[in-house]
Amino acid sequence: VQLQASGGGLVQAGGSLRLSCAASGRTIAAYVLGWFRQAPNKEREFVATISRAGTVRDYADFVKGRFTISRDNAKNTVNLQMNSLKPEDTALYYCAAVQGVTGQTITSIDRYTVWGRGTLVTVSS
């Protein structure tokens, strides 16, 4: 499977963006999906993950209550709705996938085997 993220851009603090990640090559239904981000001069970090059927989600503490991850297996997409954005959310955002089991979510970056190219989110103060 190949992944392509989109939807990044420039937004003012307090605003919203919706990132999308389109998969191709094979269905994502067998994959646990995640979003990660990497700010300048920082390590890549976990943001959100969603189980194969979309019934279980997990978030980094710094985005809880602001970001929502969702997926549409029929459309082969995973999305990240980002609200109440802060300047510290500025980063390259990546979607990633790894084959998993029902109900599983994965927060460890090292477990993911497929990565899309990042999409840049810039939040101005």
- Let me know the largest β-sheet: 7 strands, mixed
Could you report the average pLDDT, rounded to the nearest whole number?
97
Assembly annotation:
single chain
- In total, how many beta strands? 11
Sequence stretches where pLDDT stays below 50 over 5 or more residues: none
Percent helix, as a range, is under 10%
From the spread of the alpha carbons, the general shape counts as globular
Output the radius of gyration. Answer: 13 Å
How are helices and strands ordered from N to C?
A: EEEEEEEEEEE
Structure described in brief:
With 125 residues, this protein is mostly beta strands. It has no helices and 11 strands.
What does this entry look like structurally?
With 125 residues, the chain is mostly beta strands. It has no helices and eleven strands. It has strands spanning 2-6, 9-12, 17-24, 31-38, 45-50, 57-59, 67-72, 77-82, 91-99, 114-115, 119-124. Strands 2, 4, 5, 6, 9, 10 and 11 form a seven-stranded mixed β-sheet that branches. It has a four-stranded antiparallel β-sheet with strand order 1-3-8-7, with no helix packed on it. Strand 7 and strand 8 (77-82) form a beta hairpin. The N and C termini lie far apart (37 Å). The mean pLDDT is 97.
